[in-house]
Every structure is written in C-alpha cells, then in structure tokens.
Amino acid sequence: MNPGSHRAPLTPARSGVPEHGRVPKYYLVKARLEELLAELGPGGRLPTEAALAERYGVARATLRLALRDLLLEGRLRRQGRGTVVAGAKIEQPLSLASYTEGVTRQGLRPGRTLVALDRLAADPALAERLAIAPGEPLWHLERVLHADEERVGLESSYLPVARVPDLDRAFDPTGSLYAHLRGHGIHLAGAEERIETVLATPREALLIGTPPALPMLLLHRRSRDAAGRPLELVRSLYRGDRFSFTLDLTAGADD
C-alpha cells in the first residue's frame, strides 16, 4: 500500500495557522484587528494603542507586533499622530505605460516633485547599458512620485542628451516624461524590466516620507525605441505598502 494513501485529502492552507496549531498571541490580535478594519472601512481612524490593548486584553508590545504587520501589508497607514485604515493598493501594470497612465486608470491623480535634473558624463557602466561612448553627456532626472498628493515612490531616469537635448528647457518635470518623448517623435517600442524587494536608504526614505524599515519594490528598466536602440535607464522605487504590480500572461502555442 502506498504509505500516503490513508492520509486525509489535501485542503486549502489555513490562513496563518501552522501545522502544530500553536498561533502566536500577536497573530490572534491581528485577526481581531482585521475584523475592526472591516467595520471601520478605508479612512477610519483606529482607537489609541492603550485602548486597543485594553480591548483585546494584551500587552501593548503584543499589540504593536500586530499593528506592525498590518502597516507593512498596507492595511493601515499613519496619519498625523494616529493610524487609519488604508484603501486598496495602487495596481500598476507591468507594461510600457507611464506612471501617469497607470495611476490615472485607477481614478487617482498622479503627480511628481522634481528632486534633480542634472547633466553628467556617462560612466562606463551607464554608457554600456545605453550603447553610447563613455563620457557622453546624460540627463539624470530624479522625481518623487505622488498619487492624490500622497508620496508613494521615487524615480530616477538616465537619458542621452543627444536624444533629448532640450529636456532642461522644454520639459515640465511634474508631467509625464513618456508623453514629452512622444511629442518629440520618440516612441518606446520595448523594454527589459527587473523587480526586487529592498529597504529604502535613509535619503530615499526621507524623500518618500516613510520609515527606513518599510519594504520597497524596486524596478529597473531599460527602454528601447522603435529601432531597438536603448533610450532610457530607469530606477523606480515604490512603497511596498501602497503598490502591487500586475502582468497579463498569455499561453504559448505549445501550452
């Protein structure tokens, strides 16, 4: 007989409960808090830590562990000196669409604050990735990203000056870079993109307005024009508690 044939049929994984059945106290408090979040709804303000600890009969240290998890998951957010229920995460498609297009599709108002627009000489690594000679001039554009006036990310772009020589004069840094490029007859035709999770540096956390311990989603992109030439290198840092990314997958012919 197959040794596993007498086992009970597999069932969907129990949410957060390990096989031995022992659940940390903070996780039980988290489950109770999730019920409270559903009652309050987006924008609802939580009671104070002292009131919540008394309500659930736990130490404040235990309560803070539960709150920390919900903050990191994007279920809660800090507002002033209090904590409120967060709305749904912003879904950004993994496509050639700009940040503006992705945020606008969700009914939110995109915005950007200029940090820097500098002209610099391409170092060997940047030059290789952009298929230009070392020392050729590049634009470095760095901006804080907003959604409905909330700071949600930081974007850093490198483009050859020869491709967009008037970027410092004709471009509105609060608007879409891709729209500006299209207006100058430059169209993106493809890109390579890589995603990883990181922690923000102290500088990045200060610019985005988040604690350094908050997980971030980091996207590296190299965009190409219709001729296949590299046009832009982008490093985009998004708040992990506010963003998720979607990708439409299609089965191949042999699947």
Automatic annotation (TrEMBL):
Repressor listed as a keyword: no
Swiss-Prot/TrEMBL keywords: DNA-binding, Transcription, Transcription regulation
Boundaries of every HTH gntR-type domain copy: 23-88
PROSITE patterns: HTH_GNTR
Domain of life: Bacteria
The keyword Transcription appears for this protein: yes
InterPro entries: Bact_HTH_transcr_reg, Chorismate_lyase_/UTRA_dom_sf, Tscrpt_reg_HTH_GntR, UTRA, WH-like_DNA-bd_sf, WH_DNA-bd_sf
GO molecular function terms attached to this record: DNA binding; DNA-binding transcription factor activity
A biological-process GO annotation: negative regulation of DNA-templated transcription
The protein's name in its UniProt record: GntR family transcriptional regulator
Organismal lineage: Bacteria, Bacillati, Actinomycetota, Actinomycetes, Kitasatosporales
